[in-house]
Amino acid sequence: MTLDRAAGLAETARALAAGDVTSRALVERTLARIEAAQGSINAFRIVRAEAALAEAEAADRELAAGVRKPLLGVPVAVKDDMDVAGEPTAFGCCGEFPPVAEDGEAVRRLRAAGAVIVGKTNTCEFGQWPFTEGPAFGATRNPWSPAHTPGGSSGGSAAAVAAGLVPAALGSDGAGSVRIPAAWTHLVGIKPQRGRVSTWPRGESFQGITVNGTLARTVADAALLLDAASGNHALDPHRPPAVDASAAVGRDPGRLRIALALKPPFTAVPARLLPEVRTRVVELADRLAALGHTVEEADPPYGQIGLTFVPRATAGIAERVAEAPFPALLDRRTLGAARLGRLLGGAPLRAARRAESVLHHRIGGFFTSYDVVLAPTTAAPPPRIGALLELSGFATDRAMIAACPYAWPWNVLGWPGVNVPAGFTADGLPVGAQLLGPANSEPLLVQVAAQLEAELRWHEKWPAPPVTERSAAA
């Protein structure tokens, strides 16, 4: 049996368990696709060819012995902010970094589920921006339009999945960094509850706003990877009650009250939802109404939530810069953000952290009237490669807020959100919408996303492979 690039995570796991294909053969094909696409898509910072083949052979021995695990022998990728034993963790930065000694907790759990980690995907410097470019690795390109970014900061993971190089990948989301690239590459992206997928060896990443999440072509695959990666290190400060995301796929959510939230949350500079993106999101709202849900326009009471985000984000960058082995090689915008973070790292940061419980109460009250929020994931389609790369810090912030004003409040709250594909612009660029819920609502969001997927069949639409990788795509 030959599995082509359209085979998803669950289908691949079933084929391996049935003995229809070997992990070694799958990983060999995966590595060939990655190599063929690297010159055009540039999704990977590190490819673990030799190690992955050895892990595949070990998986084949387990499969032959009758061992069964959820992802035994399945090739997946992780973002290069996650520790993989024996590999460096550069997190988008320039310089030669030493290999780390141990897997991070999320990677350890993927391995425990049997997954083969084929490589680490590109991300912008310390995951700050909604594009995946930089002097450390060049530009990662969008498989739907190589002249455009796949988004960021999990752009390498999104590009790898969208191009069919791997069936699913882990990313991280601190201000939309899973959901934004998912929207811009026509993928499902799950940002889970804070603590659902451990960020250890950091108990909190970027003062608690960043979580690890999943990218895949289907809801079932994104949920399967989420379940495999979920769980906590013994020292994790956030330990939410366990959920079974995979069991929610295909389960009827019942008739829900859905708030269509089109107004951008509080931002310091102007942000405007482009009409073409608005149209796609409203079409999804109409589809949900046709499925029997009550949908009405209503915006969560965000207030000045942005005032609590900036101290946490910039203090997190300051922490990373303080640890950086090559500070002279860092982007000037990174250094500027770190300076601000040091200024805000005392009383403003403490006030921002205290405000979270107030926000939980106020915005949580919104969910007494509504079950789910449907909002744009971004206000605009993906920008062109290079459009934000050389901007000043202030100009970059303005451009980011203009394009991506919708995702970050849920990082302050620590609650789950799921990007679903919302279609394409007239120029063929993907855009998305996010389903947002209160604490521990991943199962409900997965149910609604799967209901939409069953209607829209977005996973059946693929970008054309670049000429250089077509021979390896089969």
Alpha carbon gyration radius: 20 Å
The sequence of SSEs as H and E is HHEHEHEEEHEHEEHHEHEHHHEHHEEH
Low-confidence stretches: 469-474
User: Which sequence of strands runs across the widest sheet?
Assistant: 1-3-2-6-8-7-12-13-11-9-10
Count of helix runs: 15
Strand content: 5-15%
Structural class, from secondary structure content? alpha/beta
**Average pLDDT reading:** 96
In helices, the fraction of residues equals 25-40%
Characterize the largest beta sheet: strand count, sense, and whether it forms a barrel.
11 strands, mixed
CA-CA gap between termini: 12 Å
Number of E strands: 13
Shape: globular
Protein name: Amidase
Organism: Streptomyces coeruleofuscus
Domain Amidase: 26-445
Pfam family, one: Amidase
Give your account of this protein's structure.
The chain is α/β, with parallel strands linked by helices. Helix content is 37%, strand content 13%. Strands 1-3-2-6-8-7-12-13-11-9-10 form an eleven-stranded mixed sheet, sandwiched between helices. It has a two-stranded antiparallel ribbon with strand order 4-5. Helix 2 (23-38) runs antiparallel to helix 3, helix 10 crosses helix 11 (332-344) and helix 10 packs across helix 12. The radius of gyration is 20 Å and the shape is globular. The model is unreliable at 469-474 (pLDDT under 50). Belongs to the amidase family.
Task: Sum up the structure in keywords.
single chain, alpha/beta, 11-stranded mixed β-sheet, 15 helices, 13 strands, 37% helix, AS_sf, Amidase, Amidase_dom
